[in-house]
Specification:
The chain is an alpha/beta fold. 30% of the residues lie in helices and 17% in strands.
């Protein structure tokens, strides 16, 4: 495909025949899907499914993460022309990737949402794909992890975040964006000994055995030392990666529900994600993009790049020659 293909390529989210390959339709036009992938609910035969979970129950300061998936898809249209820079391979050409659309749920029946998320992700996993989820507040990661653990056992976890999300919460009916990891550990779906939280910069007296690499240590010790420590913690375990966009400093991602200064710069996040190449990534998510609080779109752009890096990490250990 070449740039001149924009003369006749449009709406590839519906018209694409080959699930692999770059896209050259005009970035400002056409039906929006993540990286212009084809929409598909039946993802059997694909390698990876991207899906949106447009849910936010409550966040500390700013609601609006329900609009995150839409904004991230829009921002990704700028990335569909070329292979991701610096990886040395093109996951869009080597992997069959579907946009599985958004999860359906009854907004007026909040208590039904956790089971709906778990069933939605589980249904995709049962079709033989990995998933990259676009949130949604950080609660959505808990039922996603339940779906993965149901099929793989307790998973290792890499969490990019400003908050540890291990505040005590022993009420199984509470739906809280700030306690997903507490519950995941208490339920046994995540192994705390193989879990590392990256970019933390808020106090929490009990991190339940999770390794904390706070933002200050990353600024002080650098990228390579941080990567070495992450790899020591997760080892060769199958791992899930969740990226709360507030891991980035508000200067780079102002459109989030819980901004905290002193965070990662976008270049640091990019270097850390790229440096994890070779991990056995089962799946991942990027959450808490709240577009109403960022009219520039910078937060959604950052999240779209994070999701693309997750695709690259997933594909790196599953590389296939382009047909």
């Amino acid at each position: 495909m070449a740039l001149e293909d924009a003369r006749h390529q449009v709406d590839l989210a519906f018209t694409r025949d080959d699930p692999r390959g770059l896209s050259q339709e005009n970035a400002f036009a056409g039906a929006t899907s993540f990286l212009r992938r084809r929409y598909a609910k039946d993802v059997a035969g694909f390698d990876l499914a991207v899906t949106g979970i447009p849910f936010d129950q409550a966040v500390t300061h700013r609601p609006g993460a329900r609009f995150g998936p839409r904004a991230i898809r829009d921002a990704s249209c700028l990335q569909a022309y070329d292979p991701p820079y610096g990886w040395g391979f093109d996951p869009l050409s080597e992997l069959a990737i579907a946009d599985a659309g958004d999860m359906a749920f009854d907004y007026a029946d909040t208590r039904s949402v956790p089971a709906a998320i778990q069933a939605h992700i589980g249904g995709l996993l049962d079709q033989g794909v990995g998933t990259v989820a676009l949130g949604g507040d950080h609660f959505v990661t808990l039922p996603i992890l339940r779906a993965y653990a149901q099929r793989h056992g307790p998973v290792a976890l890499i969490q990019f975040d400003a908050h540890s999300d291990t505040w005590p919460d022993d009420n199984p009916d509470r739906i809280d964006h700030g306690t997903f990891l507490y519950k995941a550990i208490r339920e046994g779906v995540v192994d705390p000994a193989a879990t590392v939280s990256v970019g933390i910069r808020t106090e929490n007296p009990d991190t339940l055995g999770v390794t904390i690499l706070d933002a200050a240590s990353i600024h002080r010790d650098g990228i390579e030392a941080t990567l070495d420590r992450i790899r020591q913690v997760i080892g060769a375990r199958p791992v899930y990666l969740t990226f709360d966009i507030d891991a980035l400093d508000p200067a780079f991602a102002p459109g989030t529900g819980t901004p905290v200064w002193g965070g990662l710069a976008s270049w640091q996040a990019a270097a850390l994600l790229r440096g994890l190449a070779g991990i056995n990534l089962l799946g991942g998510d990027v959450v808490e993009v709240s577009p109403p609080y960022d009219t520039t779109g910078a937060t959604a752009i950052a999240a779209a790049h994070v999701a693309t890096e997750l695709i690259c990490l997933y594909g790196w250990t599953r590389r296939k020659p382009a047909p």
